[in-house]
């Protein structure tokens, strides 16, 4: 589905574009309490319902490519994959009851989020929504989980989420209001998972140490015939909080489990036993009130992503990457952001651009899919440099967030491959950005 060539005022606003800080951003607190009328009731249920909130958010953007690639894709870019085209990335609503982490008491909450737009193509779950839509704009249940706090074991207690979960690994996430850039780093697209059905636990051992663990059906899969193999996967890791006088936070998450489809590997046994190992560690340092630095290192190894080798062994692959972020708050409304990345795809098996609206999810499920020709040969080292200056004023009037993020981005293959602009260039320059408004 393409937007009309004649742009409306909204489309023009959405094409203006991009910026934010390189760490999760606190949004304004404007929100709707749909059950506030129950607050006067005397029952526990009335009190519980009174704190349920509803928020919504719309994002649209464009990344222009002067090379006008044929076919018309920005190689290696998921959220702005269609070059020179304005698109509605997200229109989402979230109904939730938050857990108060300052209180170590029994608590129960929930999160329900529905999302419509072009971003949904990459965040489906096999067997739930991946075959319901064929157009560019699709609909997903982005989150649907029960949240529980249990005052067990330590004074900080244990948090649990169970249901449809957004994957916790990495720096950049699905919510555009909580990340620095409109586009994503290669690491955030190819070396961290996106969505799960399962349960995640966060144990607050001490004020400094949190331990994270969980189990799920796999990356973007569900149960039975909707799982691309027959085995679960799981997380384990830790957070180190309030280091260096409260300025430093370190997050490490590892994940292991089979992620390849039996259809792709040709055998159920191989699909169940070819493990994928994901490892991500990132650190955020608040230098002062204006300057924030973030560094992320990621290593992924998959035992069977290339199927079975000539001698009958798994043909695995590796990807290593380092991403650095810098955020400088110019004043209360403007923030400058930098992102630099080196991403090594050792066998050219990880980085791909998926041609068509359903190709990405077909690849996850093991069904036939189509990609734009990219790098060939033994491997490619990608470089990404992205810059923006985000405009994020406090508008009031029940506007929770408003931001314009004009972005420029330089991608380059740092060896002899030519993956960009239809396989013609070893580099790509794009510019544009996004606009976000939410209540």
Automatic annotation (TrEMBL):
Record keyword Signal present: yes
Signal peptide interval: 1-22
One Pfam family linked to the record: BBP2
Name of the protein: Porin
Record carries keyword Signal: yes
Protein source organism: Acetobacter okinawensis
Assigned keywords, A-Z: Signal
């Amino acid at each position: 589905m393409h937007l009309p060539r004649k742009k409306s005022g909204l489309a023009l606003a959405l094409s203006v574009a991009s910026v934010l800080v390189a760490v999760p951003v606190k949004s304004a607190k404007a929100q709707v309490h749909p059950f506030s009328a129950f607050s006067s009731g005397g029952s526990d249920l009335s009190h519980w319902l009174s704190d349920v909130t509803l928020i919504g958010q719309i994002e649209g953007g464009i990344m222009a490519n002067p090379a006008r690639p044929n076919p018309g894709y920005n190689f290696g870019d998921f959220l702005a994959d269609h070059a020179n085209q304005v698109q509605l990335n997200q229109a989402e609503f979230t109904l939730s009851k938050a857990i108060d982490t300052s209180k170590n008491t029994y608590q129960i909450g929930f999160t329900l989020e529905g999302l419509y737009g072009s971003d949904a193509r990459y965040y489906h779950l096999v067997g739930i929504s991946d075959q319901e839509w064929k157009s560019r704009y699709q609909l997903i249940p982005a989150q649907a989980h029960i949240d529980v706090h249990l005052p067990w074991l330590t004074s900080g207690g244990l948090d649990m989420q169970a249901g449809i979960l957004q994957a916790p690994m990495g720096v950049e996430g699905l919510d555009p209001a909580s990340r620095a850039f409109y586009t994503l780093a290669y690491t955030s697209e190819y070396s961290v998972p996106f969505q799960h059905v399962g349960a995640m636990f966060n144990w607050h051992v001490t004020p400094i140490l949190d331990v994270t663990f969980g189990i799920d059906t796999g990356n973007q899969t569900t149960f039975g015939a909707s799982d691309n193999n027959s085995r679960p996967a799981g997380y384990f890791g830790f957070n180190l909080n309030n280091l260096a006088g409260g300025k430093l936070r370190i997050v490490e998450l590892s994940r292991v489990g089979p992620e390849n489809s039996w259809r792709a590997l040709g055998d159920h046994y191989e699909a169940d036993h070819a493990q994928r190992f994901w490892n991500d560690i990132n650190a955020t340092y608040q230098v002062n009130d204006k300057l924030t630095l973030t560094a992320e290192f990621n290593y992924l190894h998959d035992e069977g992503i290339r199927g079975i080798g000539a001698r009958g062994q798994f043909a695995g692959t590796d990807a290593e990457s380092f991403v650095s972020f810098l955020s400088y708050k110019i004043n209360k409304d403007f923030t400058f952001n930098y992102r630099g990345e080196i991403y090594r795809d050792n066998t050219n098996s990880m980085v791909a651009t998926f041609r068509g609206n359903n190709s990405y999810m077909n690849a996850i499920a093991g069904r036939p899919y189509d990609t734009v020709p990219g790098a060939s040969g033994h491997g490619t080292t990608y470089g990404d440099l992205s810059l923006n200056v985000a405009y994020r004023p406090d508008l009031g009037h029940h506007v929770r967030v408003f931001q314009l993020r004009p972005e420029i981005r330089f991608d380059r293959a740092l060896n002899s491959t030519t993956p960009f602009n239809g396989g013609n260039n070893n580099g790509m320059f794009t510019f544009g950005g996004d606009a976000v408004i939410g209540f």
